[in-house]
Design brief:
The protein has 286 residues and is mainly β. The chain has two helices and 28 strands. The strands form three sheets. The protein has a ten-stranded parallel beta sheet with strand order 1-2-7-10-13-16-19-22-25-27, with helices on one face.
């Protein structure tokens, strides 16, 4: 589905606020026009497998790598579904709009954590007006993975604010065939393959955010994207080539980039406005 084909849902409906304190209540609450408030850490361990096994009428399950024709399956609209990955279940949200997921600011910042290393913590498909706020998101075990932390496909109007996305996930964020991402005051750290993968998308801003201790391949993979901006961001202690861009429009503004100067990749092809580029030893690159 192209970006031009995305329907424009109405956001005039009243937003319902729902407080959750376990994985099952969290999954049941995932619908459009809702604010989901975490009152404690949420761990997806065996809960998703048990939900699929003992409550098959509540959620649809697809096998690993199966081609899910979601457009032809009406019961997947405005609700989540599961896919079987190598070592567990992945939670996917389809056709959900006007959804906020946040921690209860009166109680603290809470975790959304998943046990399968080969699954994304959350994957959004054909969604819009999605907000993730004041969350820590990642995996229970370290190591090399297929899945990352959050993924968006055919989505628009996504806000990630005051969030900490950590590995072992292979990447912090995957943004594909989507538009309008605002990633602010947030962190991506300790991912095992790369910081992010942006593909065929536009209107993307990373602002006042921190990226560190990610490895070991190209950290910023950006292909076929327009209007990608990094503003007042800090990159340090990452391993592997820094940037790979293909047919993309990218700018760095007031950023500090501390990286192996022999592994900057395509950074020399990218506008750097009031930026500092340092090598791993704290020496500024001229």
């Amino acid at each position: 589905m192209s970006l031009l084909m995305l329907a424009l849902p109405s956001f005039s409906q009243e937003v319902e606020e729902i407080h959750v304190n376990d994985a099952i209540s969290f999954v049941h609450a995932l619908r459009s026009n809702r604010t989901i408030v975490l009152d404690c850490d949420i761990d997806f361990g065996k809960e998703l497998q048990n939900l699929a096994k003992y409550n098959p009428d509540e959620i649809q399950v697809y096998r690993e790598y199966e081609d899910v024709d979601i457009a032809a399956i009406s019961n997947l609209h405005n609700r989540p579904y599961l896919t079987e990955e190598f070592d567990g279940m992945q939670l996917n949200l389809h056709d959900i709009h006007n959804l906020t997921i946040r921690s209860n600011e009166l109680l603290g910042t809470y975790l959304l954590r998943i046990e399968p290393r080969y699954a994304y913590v959350l994957r959004f498909v054909d969604c819009s007006n999605i907000k993730l706020e004041n969350l820590v998101m990642g995996h229970t075990e370290g190591g090399y993975c297929e899945g990352g932390v959050v993924a968006f496909k055919n989505c628009r109007d996504v806000t990630i604010n005051h969030c900490d996305l950590y590995g072992c996930g292979m990447e912090g964020i995957n943004f594909s065939n989507s538009s309008k991402l605002r990633f602010t005051n947030s962190i991506i750290r300790d991912c095992t393959y790369q910081i992010m993968d942006l593909n065929t998308s536009q209107d993307i801003v990373f602002e006042k955010s921190l990226f560190f201790r990610n490895k070991e391949f190209t950290q910023l993979n950006i292909r076929g994207c327009n209007e990608v901006y990094f503003r007042e961001c800090l990159f340090h202690s990452n391993q592997g080539p820094f940037l790979s861009e293909y047919k993309s429009n990218i700018s760095f503004v007031k950023c500090d980039i501390c990286h192996d100067v022999n592994q900057l990749g395509d950074l020399h092809m990218t506008p750097l406005i009031d930026c500092n580029v340092w090598n791993d030893f704290g020496v500024k690159k001229e």
